[in-house]
């Protein structure tokens, strides 16, 4: 009887251990694999220690034509001092990725209709909308224009190279915590992602989908009412020019 109980305990312990390993390494919905997230060597613990920022430092990175000096002011804004344009935009990409890598990439996924790759089925309709309005197609057309100009082509290529140098410098334990929470890794940056960000910003600032609604309001209430309720320009706007200018 005692032998049977010991064997049962051993079996239950084994089942529990295997179960914990499986659960700890499996993503459930938006919940990341708990084991990976809590891993003291690669998980979120590695993101708890803040990097000590030097007020002035010099970068000697692969891809730079000369050393570049970076000054961080009291507002934590980086000021780049380079000897040529290539290095200036290269380091701008590197620093932006260092400060905002996850935000940059997440926004390009949003713009391209790829958000469901990160957060699952709940954003399928949003992704479909982004693809139907042709956000990626518009970005591809814009990129063709960008690369036709030798100056803008050099700028976007240098910026892209700087972002990728930073991405390549990261080990999984050094990924921003958002990657660990959503359980995925950063992709290589591309010039297309640069213009996807630009197109996404254009849509946010100037895009709209109220034409059908406004047409119905116009048909029901007439032009005078629409102009009164939805003026094209506000009356008596406040000037933005400072006094004594």
From TrEMBL:
- Signal peptide range in chain numbering: none
**InterPro entries for this protein:** Ntn_hydrolases_N, Penicillin_amidase_dom1, S45
> Which SUPFAM superfamilies does the UniProt entry name for this protein?
N-terminal nucleophile aminohydrolases (Ntn hydrolases)
Q: Name one Pfam family in it.
A: Penicil_amidase
GO terms classed as biological process: antibiotic biosynthetic process
The GO terms this record gives for MF are: hydrolase activity, acting on carbon-nitrogen (but not peptide) bonds, in linear amides
Q: Which PANTHER family match?
A: ACYL-HOMOSERINE LACTONE ACYLASE QUIP, PEPTIDASE S45 PENICILLIN AMIDASE
Q: Which family does it belong to?
A: Belongs to the peptidase S45 family.
The protein, known as:
Uncharacterized protein
Q: Where does this protein come from, organism-wise?
A: marine metagenome
